[in-house]
Amino acid sequence: MHISVTDPISRAWEHMVAMLFRPFDLGKWFVLGFVAFLALLGEGGGTFQMPNFPGGGGGRTRFPTPAPTPSTVPAPYPHTQPAQPWVMPSQPATQPGRVTLPPFPLHTSPQPDPFDDILQFVKANLTLVIVLGAGLLALGIALMILVTWLRCRGLFMLYDCIALNRAAVVEPWKEYRAEGNSLTLAHLLLGLVGLAAIMLIFAVGGAMAWPDILGRQLTGIGITAIIVAGLAFVVIALAMALASAVLQHLIAPVMFAHRVGVLEAWPTVKTRMLREHLGAVILFFLMRFVLSIAAGIVMLIATCLTCCLAALPYLGRVITLPIPVFLTSYSLYFVQQFGADLRIFPDNPDEPTCPGCGYSLRGSLDAAYCPECGTKFGQPTDVPPPPPPAG
């Protein structure tokens, strides 16, 4: 079996052009833009970014400098006094009007450490700090779960729209509920494993460097702990990124083609792709990396040409819609090469569609109404359609 990483590029490009520009339908762009927004939620380029907190300096918080007290105000330097003739310290100041000055100030005091103030505040309000920390942690976890769930559900919606060349929201959201939930659970478990590994690394590194932390110094043990923890963090981050890429670009398309969960799709990916065609899979990810860089450059140019409109969350996905459609189509066409049972795109692109909304009617030819908009087949499109049947 010959697996190519370049042939899917031309096919994905042709499919993107035919889907978005032949003909051009602005309403279809807005619907597909919403689906792409869900599928890429949390990623850069038209999605939300974490805000910078006040304080300037790229989001770093600046602690206020405590007001000086009489005990911390240094004594005035002698040179602030009226100018007097100066003599060397070894010379006795016997002549009237002459004074001997020391070569450095006599009165010095250490500057206060802001971290000491923070530590004292934490000790004085330990219960409040724990409650606020736990609340923020719970809120962050809930937000992460919500974003992951919406992204996974949106990914299968985007697969459905691209494979069937339609702009639909309601039916694919319902139809691929099981697959989206399975992919969500896999992403959350993968993130939990990665977080546990990172916490373990920093715990071991912190234990090794604890004597240096207490002594506020850096010795050989502390340097070793930093190097080991840093290298381990890089290795785990790369492993997590690779596992997430396999889950996103190989396992998810198999789930879509076979209508199965992650566990059922994994044997197909492991046997047909990773074991038999590992070289092609590596080249595929390298090609995706290059295409992603090119897409990032295009999105940057689009952001500049549209006066930053392309950077807005939903509108940015509509403006740059050809990019996610092309990259997603590339992954689907690549996976489709690994077997006839993984064929995602229909053989006949001229499938019957709903005259009202353009929804593909593959598998719905026996129905009397469009499952997406409720239009009755054979009814003029200017007549308001009846409500879709219950259920």
Topology readout:
Layout: H1 7-21, H2 26-39, E1 86-87, E2 99-100, H3 114-124, H4 126-164, H5 170-175, H6 177-215, H7 220-258, H8 262-275, H9 278-305, H10 313-319, H11 322-336
Parallel strand pairs: 1-2
Task: Describe what this molecule looks like in 3D.
This protein has 391 residues and is an all-alpha fold. The protein folds into 2 domains: 17-45 and 122-342, no CATH class; 351-391, no CATH class. It has 11 helices and 2 strands; from the N terminus they run ααββααααααααα. It has a two-stranded parallel sheet with strand order 1-2. It is globular.
Key structural traits:
single chain, about 400 residues, mainly alpha, 2 domains, two-stranded parallel ribbon, 11 helices, 2 strands
